[in-house]
C-alpha cells in the first residue's frame, strides 16, 4: 500500500479530486502553503493500493495544468525584516503540474 501526497495548484484541485472520485479513489484535500512563494496551494492525500499508483499519476497528469514559467518579485537582502528601502528582485519560477511524494504505507485502518 502507498500513501501519496501531491502538491498541486488550487485551481486544479477540483478537477483532480472529481477525476479521482470518478475512479473510486479516496482523497483528502488539504489547504497548504508553498514555502518559497508563500502562496496557497493544495495538497492531496491519497491512500492507495500499489497497483493504483500509475492510474493516480495519470489522473494527476491529465488534470493538473502543465508547468509554465512565471515571473515573481521577491524581496531580497532584508533578512525578513520590513524596511522602507526593500530591495525587490524579479525572478522566473516554474509553476504548475504536481509535486508528488509516494510513501510506503504499513496499514490502512478505518475504525
Ligand atoms: P513553493 O515552495 O511555493 O514553490 C513554488 C515554485 O517555486 C516551485 O515549484 C519551484 O518552481 C520554485 N522554487 C521553489 N523553491 C525555489 C528556490 N529555492 N529557488 C528558485 N525557485 C524555487 P515546484 O517545484 O513545482 O513546487 C510546487 C510546490 O510544491 C512548492 O511551492 C511546495 O509547496 C511544494 N514542494 C516542492 N518541493 C517540495 C519538497 N521537496 N518538499 C515539500 N514540498 C515541496
Labels describing this entry:
two-stranded antiparallel ribbon; 4-stranded antiparallel sheet; binds ligand 2BA; 6 strands; alpha+beta; 111 residues; 2 helices; 22% helix
Description:
With 111 residues, the chain is of the alpha+beta class. It has two helices and six strands, in the order βαββαβββ. The chain has a four-stranded antiparallel beta sheet with strand order 2-3-1-6. A two-stranded antiparallel ribbon has the order 4-5. Strand 2 (28-33) and strand 3 form a beta hairpin. It is elongated and about 50 Å long. It binds ligand 2BA. Ligand 2BA binds next to strand 5.
Brief description of this entry?
The protein has 111 residues and is α+β, with helices and mostly antiparallel strands. Helices cover 22% and strands 42% of the residues. It is elongated.
Structural class: alpha+beta
How are strands sequenced across the largest beta sheet?
A: 2-3-1-6
Radius of gyration: 17 Å
Q: End-to-end distance, in Å? A: 18 Å
**What value does the average pLDDT take?**
91
Summarize the amount of helix as a percent range.
10-25%
Bound chemical compounds: ligand 2BA
Helix and strand element order: EHEEHEEE
- Please give the number of β-strands: 6
Pick out the low-confidence regions: none
Q: State the shape.
A: elongated
Residues in β-strands, percent: 35-45%
Sheet with the most strands, sense and barrel status: 4 strands, antiparallel
Number of helices: 2
Fold topology:
Elements: E1 2-8, H1 10-22, E2 28-33, E3 40-48, H2 53-63, E4 68-76, E5 87-95, E6 98-104
Antiparallel strand pairs: 1-3, 1-6, 2-3, 4-5
Helix pairs in contact: 1-2
The structure holds ligand 2BA.
Residues 7, 34-37, 39, 41, 93-95, 99 line the site of ligand 2BA.
Amino acid at each position: 500500500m502507498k500513501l501519496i501526497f501531491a502538491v498541486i495548484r488550487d485551481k486544479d484541485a477540483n478537477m483532480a479530486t472529481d477525476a479521482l472520485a470518478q475512479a473510486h479513489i479516496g482523497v483528502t484535500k488539504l489547504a497548504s502553503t508553498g514555502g518559497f512563494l508563500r502562496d496557497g496551494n493544495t495538497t492531496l492525500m491519497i491512500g492507495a493500493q500499489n497497483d493504483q499508483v500509475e492510474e493516480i499519476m495519470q489522473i494527476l497528469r491529465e488534470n493538473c495544468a502543465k508547468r509554465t514559467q512565471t515571473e515573481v518579485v521577491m524581496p531580497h537582502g532584508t533578512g525578513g525584516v520590513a524596511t522602507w528601502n526593500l530591495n525587490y528582485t524579479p525572478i522566473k519560477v516554474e509553476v504548475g503540474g504536481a509535486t508528488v511524494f509516494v510513501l510506503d504505507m504499513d496499514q490502512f485502518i478505518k475504525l
